[in-house]
Amino acid sequence: MSNVAVIGGQWGDEGKGKVVDVLSERFDIVARWQGGPNAGHTVRTAGKSFFLHQVPTGLLRERTMGVLGNGMVLDPAGLLEEIASLEASGFVIRGRLLISHRAHVILPVHRVLDSMAEDAGGGIGTTRRGIGPAYTAKAARLGLRVVDLQDEETIARRITAFMEGGAAAYLRETGREVPDVAAMAAECAAFGRELRAFVADTSVWINERMDAGATVLFEGAQGALLDLDLGTYPYVTSSSAVAAGLGAGVGVGPTRIDAVAGVFKAYATRVGGGPFPTEQKGEAGDLIRERGREYGTTTGRPRRCGWFDGLAARYAATVNGLTSAALTLFDVLDVFDEVPVCVAYRWRGMEIREFPAEPWVLEEAEPVYAMMPGWKSDTSQARRIEELPDNARRYIDRLSELLGCEIGLVSVGPDRAQTILGPGRFFRKILGAEAPKTAPARPAARAAGRPAKTRARS
Ligand code: IMP
Predict the structure, then answer these.
(1) For residue 443, pLDDT beyond 70
(2) Active site residue 201
(3) Of the candidates 350, 352, 355, 353, which has an alpha carbon nearest to the alpha carbon of residue 227?
(4) How far apart are CA 69 and CA 328, in angstroms?
(5) Residues 276, 404: one domain?
(6) Candidate ranges 276-280, 438-442, 447-451; pick with highest mean pLDDT
(7) Which side of the chain, N or C, has fewer Cβ within a 10 Å radius?
(8) Which of 128, 129, 222, 235 to mutate for ligand 1's pocket (most ligand atoms within 8 Å of CB)?
């Protein structure tokens, strides 16, 4: 398996950072293709936590190269800070990180416009990092790219085009200060000088390296349900978070992707606005939030928490063509007597089994849950799939049925060591681990073919 994409299967924050970190020791290059500082990965290694926003997680492995692809929008100040803080912790970043010269630049004015849109009412709860305005500028051909930062005249021309393309008039009309183009250009030129050593034609570079036999892990940010085309529009981010987006976002052909791994929490969370049928606003949601430390890495916002949504997950698995799935934060569910799993929606007397595009259906949909018996024991110390209680394994099997693909990895805690391989084979194969010596546990009571007992939510 030479080149593997890792994507989020829900609304982001699925724990992709940890999965990428575990896998990345087997890859030569880790490349990001979309988003920017709206992403937030927490990676824990050697008892220390690292919060990464723009730098690929793979850089925490010594021999791995990191690439920030052309499909990204980058905040130069934040990126330089991240590089400096990793270097201060002893990581060598220079010579190991390449930034695409075609990636776009987030300007401070993009952040202002993002916040203004949010504050004006009708916002969707963005991270206020300027992501939407930077991608809007890109699509409107008013963007500033990393390559432009090398030429002061081009910087000034591009920023002027953006400001005169509507931004300055809008700021003036709403009584805001219009930032000075010359000052913005000077700041950008300084960033250009600081970033110069990292900038490359990463598309050509990565293709040449792949031709020479290098392996690539494509690291997704956000999640399939936040994808601009396939997510719960308009409550989405402004880039392509699904696996298919990576070709355009890194500059490689689709023939280069050998497999796609989807990362799912054992439950579900969402930050910001938008429909979330399985959301739990009461005690269960609070317990998940506290046990899962469900507060945003980027904004610190408490995340909305709920049960695993089988329809949404199946949809994400389908549109990404998943080879395998990784299940994270599994131990968070250790305390529940029963764990509900959404297997259908009920809407105006109808039962719905496909994830709908209609926002009004998603807003009103009542989940139909299969009640899975809890396992009520600490799974955080388990290191092999056979060490998990039977009910925990039944839960995993049920999720695998709903996803329509194997589950190849289960994470039971934030540390690298708290990672269980299997029951599926994909991750075991990549990590070169041996197959389990004992036969798999007793078949699940509700294995494929036998429909789960479902009951409507009271
Ligand atoms: P934006 O990407 O900042 O424009 O925000 C658009 C939507 O995506 C908002 O609902 C954000 O909360 C959500 N979002 C963006 N990045 C992430 C992420 O990394 N994790 C979870 N939600 C995110």
Answers:
(1) no
(2) no
(3) 355
(4) 26
(5) yes
(6) 276-280
(7) C
(8) 222
Q: Would you tell me how many other CB atoms lie within 10 Å of the CB of residue 24?
A: 24
Residues 73 and 161 in one domain: no
| Residue of 41, 53, 101, 104 with catalytic role | 41
User: Is 21 one of the catalytic residues?
Assistant: no
Structural domain span for residue 207 = 3-102+198-259
Q: Are residues 130 and 229 in the same domain?
A: no
Structure tokens at 258: 């050998």
What are the pLDDT digits (tens) for 251-294?
Answer: 999 999 999 999 999 999 999 999 999 999 999 999 999 999 99
Task: State in Å, rounded, how far the first CA of the chain is from the last one.
Answer: 46
Out of 126, 238, 276, 328, give the residue to mutate to test ligand 1, the one with the largest number of ligand atoms within 8 Å of its CB.
Answer: 126
Burial of 146 (0-12, 13-18, 19+ CB in 10 A): buried
pTM: 0.93
At residue 341, the 3 state secondary structure works out as: strand
Q: Which amino acid is at 240?
A: S
Per-residue model confidence as pLDDT tens digits over 120-167: 988 899 999 999 999 999 999 999 999 999 999 999 999 999 999 999
Regarding whether 438 and 401 lie in a shared domain, the answer is yes
How far does the centroid of ligand 1 lie from the alpha carbon of residue 271, in Å? 7
| C-alpha of residue 39 to centroid of ligand 1, in Å | 7
Does 62 share its domain with 78? yes
Question: What residue owns the CA closest to ligand 1's atom 16?
Answer: 38
- Claim to verify: residue 71 and residue 150 sit in the same structural domain: no
The minimum-distance atom of ligand 1 relative to the CA of 38 is: 16
Ligand 1 centroid, distance to 80 Cα (angstroms): 22
Q: Could you give phi then psi for residue 226, rounded to 5 degrees?
A: -105, 5
- Same domain, yes or no: 77 and 8: yes
Spatial distance between the Cα atoms of 448 and 398, rounded to a whole number of angstroms: 8
| Residues within a 6 A CB radius of ligand 1 | 11-13, 38-40, 124-127, 129, 131-132, 221-222, 226, 235, 237-238, 271-272
